[in-house]
Known about the structure:
The structure holds 2 protein chains of 2 kinds. By secondary structure, chain A is an alpha+beta fold.
Amino acid sequence: MKALLKTLCEAYGPSGSEGPVRELVRAEIRKLADYVTVDPLGNLIAVVKKQGKSGKKVMLAAHLDEIGLVVTHVDAQGFARVQASGGVSPLTCVGSRVRFANGRVGVVGLDARRDDMGKIPALSEMFVDVGAADRASNPLQVGDVAGFTRPLEDLGQRLIAKSLDDRVGVAILIETLRALKRTPHEVAFVFSVQEEIGTRGAGVAAFGLDSELGLAVDVTRTGDTPNGLKMEVALGGGPAIKVRDSGMLADPRIKDLLLLRAREAKLPTQLEVLEGGTTDAAAMQLARGGLPVGCVSIPTRYIHTPSEMVDYGDVQQCVTLLLEFLQKPIEL
Amino acid sequence: MPTRPLTRRSKPAQALPPALDLELLRALSNATAVSGDEGAVRRLVLEAVRPLVAEVKVDPLGNVLAVLPAAKRDAQRVLLAAHMDEVGLMVVDYDSDGALRFEIVGGVSDRMLLGKPVLVGPKRLPGVIGATPVHLLNAERKATVVKAAAMRIDIGAANAEAARRLAPLGERATFATEFAVLDGALRGKALDDRLGCALLIALLRAGPYPVELHAAFTVQEEVGLRGARVAGYAVAPDAAFALDCTPALDLPDSRGRENTQYNTRLSAGPAIYVSDGRTIADRRLVTHLTRTATASGLPYQIRQPGGGATDAAALQRAGAGVPVVSVSVPGRYLHGPAALVRTADVENTLRLLHAALTGWTPKVLKP
């Protein structure tokens, strides 16, 4: 699974430009589902058909897209001004390297003369330098989108990579689909688009699928770093079962069923209350007449920086938990 | 069906759509249709659209939905949306001296309001947003922006009774600006988005196309894209275009630096969106538009990614999802008393949309 994570995390796929990462996933799952489709917004959907009479229609979602930068202007000297696509912190930008769809790499530079030198600079005071001498020789155009670029580092038990949010969720869904031999349910594995800019893909996918319940699989923050957040979740503590975040209250029946299945399989878990941020489950919950949702979260440090960190044990346990959940009856 | 080859850079080689009907645009621009009260514009739209289409209806929220059948069978459904409503004011209370208290509907900066003539209600009562003459202002008052809450509309009523009778609670008001044709430019209020409405009517007149064209003249865009949301659900198209008007902030930077935040530029052609505050445009549709422009020898510009939104945001998330893109005419001084657009930009927007519809094939949506 580490090789898969490396491939997925290092791939290019900012919101709205998920094509390359979608093709990587499609190649992985081609033979694993009863059918695979791409919907009008670009969500990749793999469906395992219902195998038992009492089975439910279940939607699982992990998002393909990552945060990035979008070009707003190329100036006379050949520097590109940019805007954030998703929750990019200016703190992590200066000196970062970014890559565009055509493979061109650039570095983020900072205006040396700024109005207020004492403040954290804004993204509008930064630019991307792709080594062009002037406007004419700069291959970039307004609207071109870049993702951050950084190789995955395998520290053994822990992994550092860009875009673990949410390629780790994507990898978990792929491995769950691969290992899912028998299930009474009809399970739709949705690899969603445009989550980082407002959970846009999962909402329309949920409408199209008309499922009976949904689970998002996404990263969550932790409280285990120096002067960290006041938050219970820690790396290595097992899958985090969401109680609530700022966009969604998990259906307590789903939360409790996840906890029960984890106990049965002797998996460690932790409960998650996330005060800032949300996941695809928030959009899924409101599709059509509404559906009960929950979320399995992967504890992750340094989210939305080019170096996010997860615990490999947590990741593997998420796969086991999802398999336990899907292979047994779901009565809410 | 193979793509019909577009003639390369030439004098207008394809059958050009009829020129924009300037008299219709004048009527549309002058009409009062603040969000939620779009009746006056809806009547003009219905009158213009009825003779052109097979089917037209007004939906429960007030959107006008028209269908122009395709030139061939089994065509894809393409929705084009333009909003009928405009930003403006609403009467909410009366002072004892007969002045009208008002609230702003949609996005209007306080600085746009002071001293402006307005028209109140369907009877278009003339009024003015009162202001103190400059020679009676002290230095401090000269330097501050007056808040809208402190302003009043004066319609000459002698007392609250008279004011209430002339302008009942909830009455809308707009800037009293007459549409004008200038030298290669157009000036008027509410060009955002009566221009889109006029373009959409011109496109209906110039059809049919190899698509089933659904025209949506939407309500309540300026207060949250509300009409488009239900229109998108009802039509469930294969693709959708929002036609709008977007600010051109292309004046030189006051410090002499390069202006890097202009949104769009006047005279640079139709503005194609790749992303705005609430939508990432479908790449396939952006590519179809830029290729069509290049093949037709038409100018275009990419609107700077940034804030703001169009009906496309609501259309994209309707039902099981819709590929969308926005195309706007660049205009200066929008959301104020008088906007200004270049005629050439308007005409090139019309040509681009016409060519994009004429050259449509199902291949456009292939990955």
